[in-house]
Write a structure and sequence with these properties.
Layout (H helix, E strand, L loop, with lengths): L2 H11 L2 H13 L6 H8 L3 H13 L3 E6 L2 E6 L1 H12 L20
Antiparallel strand pairs: 1-2
Length: 108
C-alpha cells in the first residue's frame, strides 16, 4: 500500500460518522447495507450519509454496487487489511510484541 493511499484512508476514517459507517459495514460483512439501512441504524440524515459514503468510496474503503433500484455498500476488506498491515508492518522491529494472553498491548 502506498503512503498516499494510507493517508487518504486514515483521513476518511478521521471523522466520527464515517468511522461509524465503516464499522457498520464491516459488521454487515459481504452482504453490505443499503443507505436506508445505514440511516436508520446510525440515525444520520440521508444527505449527510451520502456525503460520508462518497468520501469512503473515494478512499477505496468501501464499494458501491447497484442491485436493481437499490445501492449496496460494502466494506473493502482487502483495503482494510492492507491498511492494518501497513500500520503494523514494522511493529517492534519485526519481533513478536503482544503480551502472552493479551491482544491489547505491546511489550516493546
Amino acid at each position: 500500500m502506498e503512503e498516499n493511499d494510507v493517508v487518504r484512508s486514515l483521513a476518511a476514517l478521521a471523522q466520527p460518522i464515517r468511522l461509524r459507517v465503516f464499522r457498520a459495514l464491516v459488521v454487515a460483512g459481504p452482504s453490505g447495507l443499503t443507505p436506508s439501512a445505514l440511516t436508520e441504524a446510525l440515525e444520520v440524515s440521508a444527505t449527510g450519509l451520502s456525503f460520508h459514503l462518497k468520501e469512503l468510496v473515494h478512499a477505496s474503503l468501501i464499494s458501491q454496487e447497484r442491485q436493481g433500484r437499490n445501492l449496496i455498500y460494502r466494506a473493502s476488506f482487502d483495503r482494510m487489511n492492507a491498511l492494518l498491515g501497513y500500520l503494523t508492518e514494522n511493529c517492534c522491529q519485526g519481533e513478536a510484541c503482544l503480551v502472552e494472553g493479551s491482544t491489547a498491548s505491546c511489550d516493546c
